Amino acid sequence: MLVFIIRRLLQSCIVILAVSFIVFIGLYGVGDPTLLLIDPDASAAERDRAVAMLGLDRPLHVQYATFLWNALHGDLGRSFVYNEPSISLILDRLPATLELAFVALVLAVGIGIPLGLLAGLRGEGPVDRTIVTASIFGFSLPSFWQGMMLVWVFAVLLGWLPSNGRGAVGEIFGVKTSLVTLDGWRHLLLPAVNLALFKTALLIRLTRAGVREALVLDFVKFARAKGLRERRIIGVHVLKYILVPIVTVTGLEFGQLVAFATVTETVFAWPGSGKLIIDSIYKLDRPVVVAYLMVVVAMFITINLLVDILYSALDPRVRLAEKR
Question: Any transmembrane segments, and where (predicted)?
Answer without folding.
Answer: 12-31, 100-119, 131-161, 188-206, 238-263, 289-314
